[in-house]
Specification:
By secondary structure, the chain is α+β, with helices and mostly antiparallel strands. The chain folds into two domains: about 325 residues, no CATH class; about 45 residues, no CATH class. Helices cover about 25% and strands about 25% of the residues. It has seven helices and 16 strands. Strands 12-11-10-7-14-13 form a six-stranded antiparallel β-sheet. A five-stranded mixed β-sheet has the order 4-2-3-8-9, with no helix packed on it. Strands 1-5-6 form a three-stranded mixed β-sheet. A hairpin with an 8-residue loop joins strand 10 and strand 11. Helix 1 crosses helix 6 and helix 4 crosses helix 6. The relative contact order is 0.17. Bound molecules: zinc ion (ZN) (2 copies).
C-alpha cells in the first residue's frame, strides 16, 4: 500500500511544531465529518440492563435481550430515511443533533448531560473505529516532512515532551476486559405501519471476551514505560475518556494503563507476533500490520487526507481551530494565555481541566 500522494497535500515549506493534543482533536473532528454508517442517523432510544426498547417490536430485539452481560447498554438509531426532518439534514450531524428530541431512556434514567451525549456519540461512531483512526494518524505522521516537523506532546498530568521527532512513534497493543457491553441497532421500517424492520446490529465490548485496544505510542521507546506517552483516539468505545476530560486519551503509558484502561490495563491475551516487543504489559510494534479490511481503506485514506489538508492550512496561518473539538474557525481566544482558541464557551469550559495545566506556562 503506497500513500505517497498524501505528502502532496501538505503544502507548507517552513518548519512547524504541531501539538499532539490539538492534532488529536483535529483528527476526531475530521472523523466526524467523514464517511461513516452513522453519519445520517439519530439515537431514538437508549436501554440499560434488562429493559426492552419501545421503538421496535419485541421479536426484533432478540439479539439485545439475549445478550448476557452484567453491564450492558443498547442504542437504537433511526437512519436518515426514517427521520421526520430527513430533508432538512445538512452534512454530518453534530453531537447535539445526534439525539432525537423525543429520545427515550430506561425508566427512571435522568436526561443525558452534554458530556454524556459526547461520550455516547463517540462510543457509537468508534464502535469499529479504533484501528481505523490509528491507521489514519499513522499515515498523517508518515506524510509530514520529518526534517521540518516536530511534535509537542503534553499530557493532562503535566508531562511535556517539547520537541518529539514526527517519525518517532510506535503502535501499542493490549487486550482488556471492558467494563460494559454495547449493542447498537441502526434500523429502518421496511413498510410503514408494518412490524417488519431492516436493521444493522453491532456488538462491542462484550464483557466476557478480551477486547483489543490499539493506540499510538510516542516518546523514547528505549526508556521502558515511564518515558512513553499513549494516544488512544477511540477511548469512548470502551467507555473511557482522557484524564483531562477529553474524548480521547493522551497520557503517559503508566497513567493510561493504570487509570484509563479497565482492570488497571491488565493484559489478558498475548499477541502471537514475533515482531512485537513486550514492555510492561503491552506489546509494541512499529506499524499497524494487520490492517486487513479493504472496505475501510477508502475511509482511512479520506480521513488522512482531510487531516493533512487542515494541518497544511494551520501551518500556513490560514486557519484557526478549536483546541477542544477541532472545529475550523475558532474565534474565542483564552484570555489568560492568549494562545489557545475555542469555538465557544462550551468547548472552553470542557477544555479547561486539561488546559489549566498549560495555560500559565503559555501565558509567560
Ligand atoms: Zn469547539
Ligand atoms: Zn489559556
Amino acid at each position: 500500500m503506497s500513500h505517497t500522494h498524501l505528502e502532496d497535500f501538505y503544502t507548507f515549506e517552513g518548519h512547524f511544531t504541531f501539538d499532539l493534543h490539538d492534532l488529536a482533536a483535529i483528527v476526531l473532528r475530521e472523523r466526524q465529518q467523514s464517511v461513516d454508517p452513522f453519519k445520517r442517523a439519530r439515537v431514538v432510544e437508549i436501554c440499560e440492563g434488562d429493559t426492552t426498547a419501545t421503538c421496535l417490536p419485541p421479536h426484533a430485539q432478540t439479539m439485545w435481550t439475549s445478550m448476557k452481560a452484567p453491564h450492558k447498554t443498547a442504542y437504537f438509531l433511526k437512519t436518515e430515511a426514517d427521520l421526520d426532518d430527513a430533508a432538512n439534514l445538512q452534512g454530518p450531524l453534530e453531537v447535539a443533533d445526534f439525539f432525537d428530541p423525543e429520545m427515550k431512556l430506561s425508566p427512571g434514567h435522568a436526561p443525558l448531560t452534554d458530556k454524556e451525549k459526547e461520550m455516547v456519540y463517540w462510543k457509537i461512531r468508534h464502535h469499529d473505529g479504533g484501528i481505523l483512526i490509528c491507521e489514519a494518524l499513522q499515515q498523517v505522521l508518515d506524510a509530514l516532512p520529518e526534517d521540518r516537523t516536530r511534535l509537542r506532546i503534553r499530557t493532562s498530568q503535566g508531562l511535556e515532551i517539547p520537541q518529539s521527532p514526527i517519525d518517532a512513534f510506535g503502535i501499542g497493543n493490549v487486550a482488556v476486559i471492558p467494563r460494559e457491553s454495547t449493542y447498537i441497532c441502526d434500523y429502518q421500517h421496511i413498510k410503514p405501519l408494518s412490524t417488519q424492520v431492516g436493521m444493522n446490529q453491532y456488538l462491542s465490548g462484550h464483557t466476557s471476551e478480551p477486547q483489543p485496544v490499539v493506540y499510538l505510542l510516542f516518546g523514547d521507546s528505549s526508556i521502558p514505560a515511564g518515558g512513553l506517552v499513549a494516544l488512544d483516539l477511540a477511548s469512548p468505545s470502551l467507555g473511557m475518556r482522557g484524564l483531562g476530560g477529553e474524548s480521547f486519551a493522551l497520557e503517559r503509558v503508566v497513567d493510561y494503563h493504570k487509570r484509563v484502561l479497565p482492570n488497571g490495563g491488565k493484559r489478558v491475551i498475548d499477541y502471537d507476533d514475533s515482531r512485537s516487543e513486550e514492555y510492561d504489559g503491552f506489546f509494541l510494534t512499529d506499524r499497524i500490520r494487520n490492517f486487513s479490511r479493504p472496505e475501510l481503506e477508502p475511509i482511512v485514506n479520506d480521513l488522512a487526507e482531510r487531516v493533512i489538508r487542515r494541518l497544511s492550512r494551520i501551518a500556513r496561518g490560514e486557519e484557526t481551530f478549536c483546541a477542544y473539538c477541532g472545529k475550523v474557525d475558532a474565534k474565542d481566544r483564552c484570555s489568560k494565555c492568549k494562545t489557545s482558541m475555542y469555538c465557544g464557551r462550551a468547548c472552553q469550559t470542557s477544555a479547561w481541566k486539561y488546559h489549566k495545566k498549560w495555560c500559565v506556562l503559555d501565558a509567560k
